[in-house]
Design goal:
This protein has an eight-stranded mixed sheet with strand order 3-2-1-4-5-6-7-8, with helices on both faces. A five-stranded parallel sheet has the order 10-9-11-12-13. Helix content is 43%, strand content 13%. The chain contains 18 helices and 13 strands. The chain has helices at residues 15-26, 38-45, 56-65, 102-116, 135-143, 163-168, 184-193, 195-199, 209-240, 244-252, 273-286, 294-317, 345-355, 368-374, 384-388, 401-404, 408-412, 429-434; strands at 7-11, 30-34, 69-72, 83-86, 123-127, 149-153, 173-177, 204-208, 326-330, 359-363, 393-396, 419-422, 438-441. The structure holds uridine-5'-diphosphate-glucuronic acid. The site of uridine-5'-diphosphate-glucuronic acid has 21 residues, from α9. Its EC number is 1.1.1.22.
């Protein structure tokens, strides 16, 4: 028997919320996405994606057309909802300490009267946002007196670039609840939401709030640690002649270590890993574990240090000064298959080169508009050819497929000096060298 379709709301249709909303509609539910940003709501309502994400455009359009997926700016439309998902941003606070929870707080303020009007009908609020451990317990205290209303924390593990796949085929579902011995409303509603995934034998774990919150930030902090670890090793490779790809390959064959997230290069960026390690560090400090989390400060410092490292390398290749040098940068997004430039290592390096006087031209298959909007005076090109033309140094900083597959012989003629920094260990070094390029890879001889 097919599961009962529910009526769901997704409050906050940024990256995470929009993908979650469309994916839940795909599972057969009726979904209303809410956001305060009227332009975003208008675009999504017409089935137009506000961001670049493989597979999302089709998913969105299909579900908007079917009528299962709608969007609104108006909380009054969220009556008769079985499960409200909270997918609001929890940005780093301006003082750098901890997360700004004000968007979640105001959503809850707006929801409370609607929840009270349900007259005891079971309703679940399911938090998806990444929050400091302890947050759900505090929010729970606010709604516990409302009859029939429950709260769960249901963290999301999707990766940009694989968001649709990760939402519809996650490694695991985690339900954080107030009381594991008394959570039948939370479990039965979430199990109905995810019935199709549970049917695929995707593991589903019920934990307390605190564990569920910590799973999320621990996972991201562990991933960040793997990347900074291999980047630290890559610096030793550079001075000794070892090859970091070989080291990563062989240690990754030990399945206690695992092969993934050991790609050395210019380090991690994006809206999650950098923010989450800083968030965990600050929360750990508040909870009295300052010393045990000092390593996260190092993970962060190693990561940002990679950006400086590449700028120094560029300067060395350009005879000691960047001033007036024509530098071409391939890639601006924080990783391939996204147009997201939040805390992008590629863009950060490009800006550093520029601030030291280089004439930087940059291109990205998806992020050009986002770069132009943020840095109107920055020189953004739409084609690889125009970007490379007359360059004295090329830097490959986001490993898009189209850059990995460039033909070194044919682009050789575009540049003034055939030298390239492979910031992502993405190129076939021998092929590029055979075509007459001087290639500097990070951690590779
Ligand atoms: C990350 C996590 O991987 C997701 O599981 C999580 O749900 C998400 O954050 C989130 O909290 O929302 P995402 O930020 O999309 O996902 O990107 P990742 O694929 O984790 O990549 C992060 C950065 O690490 C990128 O800049 C990437 O280039 C870099 N990276 C990744 C490396 O430098 N080396 C690697 O081996 C892997």
């Amino acid at each position: 028997s097919s599961p009962r379709p529910l009526t769901l709301s997704v409050i906050g249709v940024g990256y995470l919320g929009a993908v979650h909303a469309a994916a839940m509609a795909e599972l057969g539910h009726r979904v209303i996405g809410l956001d305060v940003d009227a332009d975003r709501v208008a675009a999504l309502s017409e089935g137009r994606s506000p961001f670049h994400e493989p597979g999302f455009d089709e998913l969105l359009l299909r579900n908007v057309r079917s009528g299962r997926l709608t969007f609104t700016t108006d909380y009054a439309k969220l009556t008769d909802v079985d499960v409200h998902f909270l997918a609001l941003g929890t940005p780093q606070r301006a003082d750098g300490l901890g997360a700004d929870l004000s968007y979640i707080e105001s959503a809850l303020d707006a929801l409370v009267p609607l929840l009270e009007a349900r007259d005891g009908k079971p309703t679940l609020i399911a938090g998806k946002s990444t929050v400091p451990v302890g947050t759900a317990r505090g929010l729970h205290a606010r709604i516990t007196a409302i009859d029939g209303v429950a709260l769960a924390w249901n963290p999301e593990f999707l990766r940009e670039g694989f968001a649709v796949e990760d939402t519809l085929r996650p490694d695991r579902l985690v339900y954080g609840v107030a009381d594991q011995g008394n959570a039948s409303t939370e479990i039965s509603l979430l199990d109905t939401v995810y019935a199709e995934l549970i049917g695929l034998e995707i593991p589903r774990k019920v934990y307390n709030f605190e564990s569920a919150e910590l799973v999320k930030v621990s996972a991201n902090s562990f991933l960040a640690t793997k990347i900074s670890f291999i980047n630290a090793i890559s610096e030793l490779c550079d001075v000794t002649g070892a090859d970091v790809n070989d080291v990563a390959e062989a240690i990754g064959m030990d399945d206690r270590i695992g092969a993934k997230f050991l790609r050395a290069g210019i380090g991690f960026g994006g809206g999650c890993l950098p923010k989450d390690i800083r968030g965990l560090l600050s929360r750990a400090g508040e909870l009295g574990s300052v010393d045990s989390f000092a390593f996260l400060r190092d993970i962060d410092a190693i990561n940002t240090g990679r950006r400086e490292y590449v700028v120094r390398l560029a300067k060395r290749l350009l005879d000691g000064t960047l001033d007036g040098k024509r530098v071409a940068v391939l890639g601006a997004a924080f990783k391939p298959d996204t147009d997201d430039v939040r805390d992008s290592p590629a863009l950060d390096i490009a800006l550093k080169l520029y601030s030291e006087g280089a004439k930087v031209s940059i291109t990205d298959p998806a992020a050009n508009e986002n770069v132009r909007r943020r840095y109107p005076s920055f020189h953004v090109e739409d084609s690889v050819e125009e970007t490379l033309r007359d360059a004295e140094l090329v830097l490959l900083l986001t490993e898009w497929k189209e850059y990995r597959e460039l033909d070194p012989a044919s682009v050789r003629d575009l540049v003034a000096t055939a030298q390239i920094i492979d910031g992502r260990n993405a190129l076939d070094l021998s092929a590029w060298r055979a075509a007459g390029w001087q290639v500097e890879a990070l951690g590779r001889p």
